[in-house]
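Input:
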Amino acid sequence: MWFFSDEHRMLQETVRQFAQSVLAPRIEQLDDEESFHREAFPKMGALGLLGITVAEEDGGAGLDAVSATLAMEEMAAVDASTTLSYLAHSILCVNQIARNGIAEQKARWLPKLISGEHVGGMGMSEPEAGSDALGMKTRATRQGESYELNGTKTWITNGPVGEVFYCYARTGSAKREISTFVVEKGMPGFSTGKKFKKMGMRASPTGELVFDHCQVPVANRVGDENSSVQAMMRNLDIERITIAGISLGIARNCIEVSTRYAQERKQFGKPIGAFQQIQERLSEASAWYEACRALTYNSAKAFDLTGGLSSREVSAWAARAKLQSAQMATQVGLDAIQILGGYGYTREFPVERQMRDAKLIEIGAGTNEILRTIIARQMLGNDVAQA
Amino acid sequence: MDFQPTEMQTELSGLARRFAREKIQPVVEQDEHDERFRPELIAELGQLGLTGIPVAEAHGGAGLGYQDYITVLEELASVSVSYAISVAVTGLAQVILEKFGNEAQKQRIARLAAGQAIGAFSLSEAGSGSDAGSLRTTARRDGDHYVINGTKLWTTQADSAEVIMLMARTGAADDRTRGVSTFLLEQGTPGLRLGKREKKMGCHISHTMELVLENVRVPASCLVGREGDGFKIAMTALDSGRITIAASALGIARSSIEVATGHARQREQFGKPIGEYQGVSFLLADMATRYDAAKLLVQRAAFLKDQGLPFSTEAAMAKLFATDMAMQVTTDAVQILGGSGYTQDFPVERFMREAKVLQIVEGTNQIQRMVIGRSLLKTH
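Output:
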């Protein structure tokens, strides 16, 4: 993008090398076995990637949303699963503690999360509260110097493997009376429930967080009681922008692999790239990818430039970027398999894995359907959109 | 042709549906995970008379038509595409033997039609996929025998097959249409061995095999049809095979629509069932409409074939449209189920992975477009 700085380009190169040397050799087997690349986290920590958006005085890299998106794209071009776990860690957990925690809380949790000694995650969705996030039922009841949490969170990225979870629970009777608690592995009454078997993103463990009379000290509450909805919603913007980066990475690699294949594979005496059907798929894929790339990085830039756009407008841009990028990556993944034919359907090439990974992004961090609703409300106004 | 299923079709689809639900459904998820194919299920299907539908009773088949055949395949695929494909591929071997085999070769149909044996069809090679005429496996005549050498790829169920219909080159390397012949190979023939089994995105129950042929010496009586008929035989087989793949696409699409509709009725968000949102109900409407349209195309192709009329273009249209439909419908079903749809707690993510292969086998959908395009330009 024209506005990338030298710093952005250096980061891009660093992450590209990291992905090639650390992630590429492991991903096929991790995907096959549904296991987790735990050792990648300290290595990301050493490169300063785990606290990418955290201020330098808090031990982070002090970079912007454009940088975080670039890191996602580069990593996801090789291994979208580990990238998704990285996103849950750095954007959903670390970024939120840094944005909303007080100094004492930041000092407690950030060092080990930023070094990669600990893995973080976030707990929002519940079995009956997916798209309707504010419909959550997990409740926290104050009991002296602690809260008792009861409820179950589901589809939690890093749930089965993490140490620190940034969790939302209901503390009042009104719909928006939601508070935040940092729940740590080993706390009494906290367990991780079942681990999901998934179509893709198989190297990114997804599970439940179960709170059964779970005792959480008041010191683990982040922000004031009943006041977390705004911060929760705002973080969805950077989550959507950066996860769109994962779609970009997946699509870019699928386009590279299928382009190379179309140059090399010969049928009917010529490279299949000489056939217009293949040219059409490749050209449409690259045009859609470039459009999504421009949209996503512009949205990241809009997120970084405070002022100018209203928060509703930023939310709509983030929603547009993810809505298009996620659909684009699934289609590009499907088309890459199609171009590779029988080979594309096998695990000898990465495109079938990348397509399986791509589909998740149409669902996680706001389904396509919810994103369309957000965009429509911003365009039409709530009065009309919810008439 | 009318829009009512015949009594026979209703009976067949009922039989196949019950079998799929009672016998395949309970094991399908675990077997997909373990990549385990159960030949005994094919034998049971055979006892029900469902493995030899389109071949004549005289050869041990049911003597029925493709319109009957597609109802069975749709039902099997609605639970497991792998088993639908298994039946279809064994069917392909029977159809080839019935149409092109000599009397001795036709004797081989009965075991296949009864589900007592499994058949395979081996055409593709590493360098020869869509461009089937360029295959390099050679069959060299040596007195009363042929000696076959080469490597075949993506041969469905070659590991469990008793007989393999294999295409090999008997003519010049550049003779695309008359240079290929078909051979009836027995499992266990010296020099014929199984290579690697592909690791795939889906359809794990159905084994996709590499076949290695090293100086495989077979009597000349294994030649099906005449020397040089192989390409014609393969293309004829693929024409009818396309109808079976299209029927399989109908099965997974229908199941996906059922699961997604059930979920849209039950799942509540923001205080009402998600089916009450247009974003969901319109998606379901499009899925159902495309499914019905695809079904009509598949039925037309089967009807034409049953009447003995030309059906090659119509089969290509049915395969193209039905498999693209299935890809879209299964993807949308995952979307409607959201996070649940992405997990293996529901079958739709499996259907989506299975749908993709249907756009590739029996001629990629690019090849279908070539077939349709050429036919349009030739006749108009």
